[in-house]
Amino acid sequence: MGNNYGYLPLFETKSPGRPFLIKLYVLTIFVAVCMIWVYRVRYLPVEGVLERWTWIGMFFAELWFSIYWFITHLVRWNPICRCTFKDRLSQRFEKDLPRVDIFVCTADPEMEPPIMVINTVLSMMAYDYPPEKLSVYLSDDGVSELTFYAMLEASRFSKYWLPFCKQFSVEPRSPEAYFHNEPLDDHKLYGDMKNWIKVTSKQDQVSEEIRKEHKGFSEWDFVSSRHDHQAIVQILIDGRDPLAMDNEAQRLPSLVYLSREKRPRYPHNVKARAMNALFSCIRVSSRISNGPINMNVDCDMYSNDSNSIRDALCFFMDEEKGHEIG
Ligand SMILES: O=c1ccn([C@@H]2O[C@H](COP(=O)(O)OP(=O)(O)O[C@H]3O[C@H](CO)[C@@H](O)[C@H](O)[C@H]3O)[C@@H](O)[C@H]2O)c(=O)[nH]1
Ligand SMILES: [Mn+2]
């Protein structure tokens, strides 16, 4: 590492070029656009104030759209693509890969149903990355007991889902997306979990039986409202604990539920403040995993490629060109 003798890059920048016919097509439109400008300037009406100003108005509208069109095609004229070499990343850095903290944000259990949120969370937990170096945090601005319950279910389901993904190279690793076209009866575990969450969502409160399953539910005894409550941090899976294992006896990534403190009269600045609670000096993650690489996703965006972290690290960790991009 760091020894540039026999250095092989972790990524490559290629120019696929733009086919000649597309370039020709764009050029013909460009010539046509120029002819419209010439026409507008040459045939400006000399009589009639209204006609004259309408003509000038049309000219400026066309000018504005042509500039927009021109800029759009200028940036597409010579496209480039970047390819990563994940095998080289593994060879050089597998033992020294950095810890990665992933933050998923949610804010409203009605607009962002907990089953969707945990599908995003599960797809992040299932990244192809050393589990002891991966932590997934859910920031819940809706301070919803139901979302916490769904996270508890997800922590249990992950013990089956993660080894299943690895064994069968599942893509994408969101269970809902993967089982999309298949009857849920064939995937009983996921079907059961989904049903439980659905049934619980229909009730006003999480039942007493469920509340007994985790001490974290007691936090909700002190929640006055969505805008008035203490900070809640619950570590559902502690990846630092070597005994946190899936059902194939492999280590699991950390899974943390967080709802930042909110009090009336204090602005809570939507997602931005939630990110501060996660990232800044009072950063919750710094006390748990403190990963130098952080990633943020909205709860409605599951990962559709289990190699995304490794792809990103190829850009960050390339010894010679990494600083140009990462
Ligand atoms: O008080 C809040 C409000 C929202 N969110 C979360 O922030 C994300 C984005 O909010 P949303 O209202 O869904 O905005 P979108 O237009 O879907 O999101 C785009 O626009 C946002 C604001 O420009 C960016 O922050 C997002 O990354 C980007 O995907 C969602 O996960 C929300 O759950 C919070 O965490 N706390
Ligand atoms: Mn959104």
TrEMBL record:
User: Which Pfam families does the record associate with it?
Assistant: Cellulose_synt (PF03552)
Q: Which GO CC terms are listed, alphabetically?
A: Golgi membrane
Instruction: List locations, semicolon-separated.
Output: Golgi apparatus membrane
The molecular function GO annotations come to:
cellulose synthase (UDP-forming) activity
**Major place of localization?**
Golgi
Residue sites binding Mn(2+) per the record: 271, 298
Please provide the record's keywords in A-Z order: Cell wall biogenesis/degradation, Glycosyltransferase, Golgi apparatus, Membrane, Transferase, Transmembrane, Transmembrane helix
Looking at the UniProt entry, the stretches that span the membrane are 20-41, 53-71
InterPro entries associated with the record: Cellulose_synth (IPR005150), Nucleotide-diphossugar_trans (IPR029044)
Residues at which UDP-alpha-D-glucose binds: 112, 141
Q: How does it sit in the membrane?
A: Multi-pass membrane protein
Coiled-coil positions? none
Its BP terms in the Gene Ontology are:
cell wall organization; cellulose biosynthetic process
The UniProt entry, under Gene3D superfamilies, shows: Spore Coat Polysaccharide Biosynthesis Protein SpsA, Chain A
- Record keyword Glycosyltransferase present: yes
What does it do? Thought to be a Golgi-localized beta-glycan synthase that polymerize the backbones of noncellulosic polysaccharides (hemicelluloses) of plant cell wall.
Name of the protein in its database record: Uncharacterized protein
Q: Which organism is it from?
A: Salix dunnii
